[in-house]
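Notebook entry, structure prediction.
Reason for the run: the old model in the group folder had no record of what sequence produced it. Starting over properly, with the input documented here first.
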Amino acid sequence: LRRPGRFDRLIEIAPPDVEGLANILRAHLKNELADADLSLVAQRLLGRVGADVVQVVNSAHRRARLAGRALTLDDLLAEASPPDPRSLAELKACAIHEAGHAVAAVALGRTLQGVSLQLSGASGGMTRIEHPGFIPTRAVIEDTLVIGLAGRAADVVLGAGASAGAMSDLAVATRELSALHASYGLGNTLLHRTGVEDASAL
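New structure, fully documented this time:
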């Protein structure tokens, strides 16, 4: 969300955490699987939103109905984590990349919320880190950039080398570093030259 104002404050609304996802699951399951521990299903859904959870519950119900039986936890797990088409080498590459983000985050004192290797659109994995607050100082931004680029560093140092898989990380880093100098006034001058959206192009 963008809060209009002099500094165009940006407010991030991240996807639910594991507890939030488990609560959404519980709400849509109503009285079904009342004694089941939904945290493992929620962990597999990390990075997804409420609408995705509803789709998983509906698909699990369909699976159980086609099998002519009541819904089970295994139905939910199967729908939350469908078979992965990647090879072991591709999974290892994704794991190395996400581990790079995670290690850098912990080393910089950030709270690690979870790491997932689940496919989600074009993304082969995701590392969730607690946001350090809503006052983006230069130190906070630079630490965030280090964490974002640590995936590429891990690819180069521990993996098979750099790949296009870090494209979104590079896009975020370029945008934020450009904005730091051209928009936020946190570089070597106080000059504001353009808005955040246009900083990279500038």
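Summary: The chain has a mean pLDDT of 89.
The old model has been moved to the deprecated folder.
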